[in-house]
Specification:
By secondary structure, the protein is an alpha/beta fold. The chain has one domain: Rossmann fold, CATH 3.40.50.720. It has seven helices and seven strands. The protein has a seven-stranded parallel beta sheet, with helices on both faces.
Length: 257
């Protein structure tokens, strides 16, 4: 079936971590379906590049530098989106960090705190700011949190801290979905596995080496494309998923089976 290219026409979509990887693909995908896009992240240059790509394809977007671990940044981000476009209809909390490679007993407190601050507290602060705005709007809104197949669905040696932060995102999503559906805000999560991003590369690993490794490790035999992850997010954020609430959709080629 042909894709509906106008599912988000007239709506504003916010994407954190929008300067690269899945976040950049999300920005392009929302814009292609009619959304006015706000991209946020820590690095101005990469955000501006995303905006340029959206505008090159005829879309509308603007960028705002924000650190998701800071409540004031998230509150200001939501205000800026509403000031610019008049509403906040969709939000994707995608920003995340990975500190990996050591058993839990050897993990530095700094690395642990960095993952908790961004992957968990950052989602909480973003959710809070987004819901507070969306529940004032007649049409409410939809939020998708980006978790990971590492956590609730899978464990990997050396990634216990990351898995903990992402498992908590799944729990946070389900609880927030229950509490705020009555406010007109529908909240879900996606849990990608290895995808076409730098985060899925091992230290020093090339793209060809990753491809060979995934042929052995993934039932699908490859990493997921960022477009495949984006289309799952767009489904959950769209009216096509109007009765989908509190789900955690795994997109990992079967690696967590």
């Amino acid at each position: 079936m042909p894709r509906n290219r106008n599912r988000f026409s007239g709506r504003t979509a916010l994407v954190t971590g929008g300067g690269s990887g899945i976040g950049r693909t999300l920005a392009l995908a929302f814009a292609a379906e009619g959304a006015r896009v706000v991209v946020a992240g820590r690095t101005r240059a990469s955000l501006d590049e995303t905006v340029g790509l959206v505008e090159r394809d005829g879309g509308t977007a603007f960028a705002r530098v924000a650190d998701v671990s800071r409540a004031a940044d998230l509150d200001a981000l939501v205000r800026a989106a509403v000031d610019r476009f008049g509403s906040l209809d969709v939000a994707v909390n995608n920003a995340g960090v990975l500190r990996a490679g050591r058993p839990l007993a050897d993990v530095d407190e700094e690395d642990w705190q960095s993952m908790i601050d961004t992957n968990l507290t950052g989602v909480f602060l973003a959710l809070r700011a987004e819901v507070r705005q969306m529940r004032t709007q007649p049409g409410g809104g939809a939020i998708v949190n980006v978790s990971s197949n590492i956590g609730v669905h899978r464990q990997i040696r050396g990634l216990t801290g990351y898995a903990t932060s992402k498992a908590a995102v799944t729990a946070l999503t389900r609880g927030a979905a229950l509490e705020h559906l009555g406010d007109g805000v529908r909240i879900n999560a996606v849990s990608p596995g290895p995808s076409e991003t730098a985060m899925s590369l091992r230290p020093g690993e090339s793209l060809d080496e990753r491809a060979l490794r995934m042929k052995e490790q993934s039932p699908l035999g490859r990493v997921s494309s960022t477009e495949e992850v984006a289309q799952a997010v767009l489904y959950l954020a769209s009216d096509d998923a109007a009765s989908v609430v509190g789900t955690d959709l795994v997109i990992d080629g079967g690696t967590a089976l």
